[in-house]
Predict the 3D structure of the following.
Amino acid sequence: MIDADQCHIGTNRALIDMIASDMRAFGANKIQIGGNTPIQSSDKSGIMSVTGIAERDNTQCRILVVDDDRATAEEAVEAAHLLGYLCTFALDAASALRMIAEDESIGIVVTDVQMPGMTGLSLLDELASRFASQRPLVTLVITGFGSIDVAIAAMRNEAADFLTKPVLREDLAGALRRAMRKWLRLCGERSLAALSASLRPPASEGSQPAPADPLPLTPVDDAELLKITRKLVRMREQRGQFLNASLFSDPMWDILLDLTSARLEQKTVPVSSVCQAAGVPMSTALRQIRSLVDMGLIRRWSDPLDRRRDLLAINDEAMEAMRRYLTYLRDRIGV
């Protein structure tokens, strides 16, 4: 590990801040320049201000801390656990790569820069090469080596955050919160892409490659699409009469169906109504709504006529995907 006190960065601080502002444009944020000490706790108010992170539906995303200093790695893992995240650590980049390959739930990687063997920046490059096309991965860099070159390299490797030691717990919380939002947004983009791809014809063996555009579908008006959406909702409700509904709970899909119906009727709906349509406890429905907002599939805003409540609506891109999906069900499946 290189002590930050050995790095004369005083006159370069403004330049590093300028680099950090560029990183913010890509969802990144440099937190602090400091010494080479383990992650420190802040006062209780700082910790309490980020406890809302634990309420996010982040159970499908694990965090991996990579640092050759076991004490520092354990400090970071403990801080993440206190914030409600699932987190583990690796003591070198090679071990981290093996863990990421074996555990698809790892979606956020927090890495030190100066490590024996493969450095943290080389690890970022390996992650981009091996996994970027397979699954969402969000990376953060924590280092005591606060140089301009490191900041630029981290930005080029699309690190979501660049933090320098010592890292206060609320600063780590903010970085993880932004990383989780980015991870959810990437998941949402992949979901939309997968839905669009599912509507394209498969390429038959020995034939020409399938066209980039999906199969031509018969135009359907909103009234017909609304009937199909309501039929899907009824089918899901009727299934619960024969099978244990809790075994097939899918609140995100129920929320999207409800908001699709509302959009087809040119309505906006309050959060409370959408939670009821999800068919799960209110706290679970709210977590799913936050996840869908972070994914960019739906939007939430305060009701201008009643500030006591929020409204929800499906976003344009997600609605277009739902229109195509519903039309596909009508033309190809006969729903």
Notes: The domain at 222-333 is CATH 1.10.10.10 (Arc Repressor Mutant, subunit A). Strands lie at 62-66, 86-90, 106-111, 138-143, 161-164, 269-270, 298-303, 306-314. The chain has two domains: 4-187, 222-333. The first strand starts at residue 62 and ends at 66.
